[in-house]
Amino acid sequence: MKWEEIRKLYPNQYVMLEELQSSINGNKKYIEDIALIKTIQDPKEATKALVNSRGKRFVYHTGKDKIVMEIIIRPGLRGLTKK
């Protein structure tokens, strides 16, 4: 499903999505194809769901024109090895 379709169906709402296809350009991840998991009415519930998101699932607000995420690299975690 495309983001434009979800925005039309669920205006001004939080939605839980699953990434199906994306591309990376520099430090930005552009989500191109998604699956709608559920809508979330309560902003507090949306925040909790976002914090607990794992893998390719995430929470986003349909007020945004595009789904673009900044990729943050944690320098403290690079180069860790298992003993």
Helix/sheet category: alpha+beta
Percent helix, as a range, is: 10-25%
The residue-averaged pLDDT reads 90
Strand order of the largest sheet: 3-1-2-4
Distance between the termini: 44 Å
List the uncertain runs.
none
Tally of extended strands?
A: 4
Comma- or semicolon-separated keywords:
about 80 residues, globular, 4-stranded antiparallel sheet, alpha+beta
Structure description:
- With about 80 residues, the protein is an alpha+beta fold.
- The protein has one domain (about 5-75).
- About 20% of the residues lie in helices and about 40% in strands.
- The chain has helices spanning about 5-10, 45-50, and strands at about 15-25, 30-40, 55-60, 70.
- It has a four-stranded antiparallel beta sheet.
- It is globular.
- The mean pLDDT is about 90.
Short note summarizing the structure:
The chain is of the alpha+beta class and 83 residues long.
